[in-house]
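Check this.
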Amino acid sequence: MIIKVISALLYPLGLASLCVFLAVLLLLRGRRLAARYCSTFAVVILLLASNPMLASKLVYSLERQHPQRAVDSFAKHDAIIVLGGGLRIPTAPAKYAQLAHGSDRYWYAARLYRAAKADKIIISGGNVYQQPGLKSEAYYASELLQQWGVPQDAIELEVGSRTTAENQRNTVDLISKNRIQSALLVTSAIHMPRAYSLFFKLPIEITPASADVLIRQQNWPAIFNFIPSASALRLTTVALHEYYGIWFAALRSGLLR
């Protein structure tokens, strides 16, 4: 919980808000020049973070590390491991789970299964926060996969993880139970560098299978690359979320040595 609060304050909107708050405090203390610097810094942060070109470069720097591959290019593996994310569980007033940003990973996993690239799918993903009366995201993802033609007995669920690190730790028992020696790791392309850096440590062969590619070749007027937008701000925030996760994992690993 503390890490999530700190991370939120380190995202562009959080940093800009802190700068504005500090500017107000400085202004109340009569320090107008310092307050002006803080306000300017807040504006600069938001302008840079909401720039479409910068946002695209940040996201692409992650997605290019493990580009998406055609389903037919993969060899057969023992299992497909799908990491939770991109699915809105049916909290009120919704009656059904809903596909959201990142949900393409489930469809991609179904495609891999139907192409006979593995005989087992492991879905790893609990709810970040407790939702009374509702099941885990992995459960609702399993329902989707079954509707897309994956038989229930081919699906294993890991329902306790709330972070990528827990995804890795909590799938170990299922890997051992099913005697898995190789697995396709499925998650969003932007998330794959962080996920793969954890899963490749497992004593099995892990092959990245990236889904949900955000940065694609599109023809549009060049001027839109320079006009700030809310969608670019969101992309920058998502990219920073991944970089923060990578840096935090590296820091934690170094401290535990």
